[in-house]
Amino acid sequence: MDGGAMTTLLDVRDLHVAYRGGALWRSRPVPIVHGVSFRVGRGEIVGLIGESGSGKSTIARSIVGLTPVARGEIVLDQGTAHVGRARHVQMIFQDPFASLDPRMTVGAQIAEPLAIHRLVPKALRRQRVSELLTRVGLSDAVYDRLPHAFSGGQRARIGIARALAVEPALLIADEATAALDVSVQAQILNLLMDLRDDLGLSILFITHDLAVVRVLCDRAVVLRRGRIVEQGETVALFAAPREDYTRLLLASHRTLEPQA
Ligand SMILES: Nc1ncnc2c1ncn2[C@@H]1O[C@H](COP(=O)(O)OP(=O)(O)O)[C@@H](O)[C@H]1O
Ligand SMILES: [Mg+2]
């Protein structure tokens, strides 16, 4: 992907995030993210990689407005600093069903955000959900089923359909495919790439799996203990990492990658 011609969708500038300790004796906030800056272009897939506890999910939560920003700015589409409650950023998680109601049909739950955000008139919602199901590679029969007895891959697709319902510009996937079998994971990654190609969707893909980054991401941002170690185009980064830490990270994962 040509980085030069790409317009910026998400601009994270000098982001600092701190968590307040729960106990009274530790009321001073604990800094977790220390001045992180990166961008996601329109139609670009960017990988945010780092070990467990490095602050990946914290950054994601700040971008969607669930965790307050201590310092710095998060700018979406060159607009206002606070993208928080906007529908333009949607998240998908490892267990998309954690947020679904087990007694309500999948179709009704995909339709819910359409009503909340008044995007589609009531009479047309059923049709819109059918389009979304098709879009993510599911049969329309899924509409009337309850959210049990779906496979991991189907669950992931349903989670993606629900996120797409509000026509977001940016999708944040937080370890969304981590629990899937390798072949199912590959199908979901293909779906995400298709969505990027067809809808111009931007994706921030959070993972600790470097093999996935290599397949999916145009660029990658390497995070360590709340700081960016290095970032760059995936191909260049994997071929010639500049920092020792990135080299170590790549070396430690080399055996997980498919042999060329
Ligand atoms: N709500 C919270 N309150 C206090 N500390 C937190 C909270 N959430 C995460 N942390 C801490 O922040 C650090 C980064 O966590 P997280 O962003 O979840 O990392 P990652 O997603 O990279 O595994 C960890 O040390 C974690 O224990
Ligand atoms: Mg996390």
TrEMBL record:
Q: Which SMART domains match?
A: AAA
Q: Where in this chain does the record put each ABC transporter domain?
A: 12-250
Q: Name one GO biological process term.
A: transmembrane transport
Among PROSITE patterns, the record links this protein to: ABC_TRANSPORTER_1 (PS00211), ABC_TRANSPORTER_2 (PS50893)
UniProt keyword Ribonucleoprotein present: no
Q: Does the keyword Nucleus apply?
A: no
Task: Cite the InterPro entries for this sequence.
Answer: AAA+_ATPase (IPR003593), ABC_transp_ATP-bind (IPR050319), ABC_transporter-like_ATP-bd (IPR003439), ABC_transporter-like_CS (IPR017871), P-loop_NTPase (IPR027417)
A Pfam family this chain is assigned to: ABC_tran
**Could you tell me which CDD domains the record lists for this protein?**
ABC_NikE_OppD_transporters
Q: What Gene3D superfamilies does this protein map onto? A: P-loop containing nucleotide triphosphate hydrolases
GO MF, one annotated term: ATP hydrolysis activity
Ordered alphabetically, the record's keywords are:
ATP-binding, Nucleotide-binding, Transport
Q: Which family does it belong to?
A: Belongs to the ABC transporter superfamily.
Q: What is this protein called?
A: ABC transporter domain-containing protein
Q: Which organism is it from?
A: Neoasaia chiangmaiensis
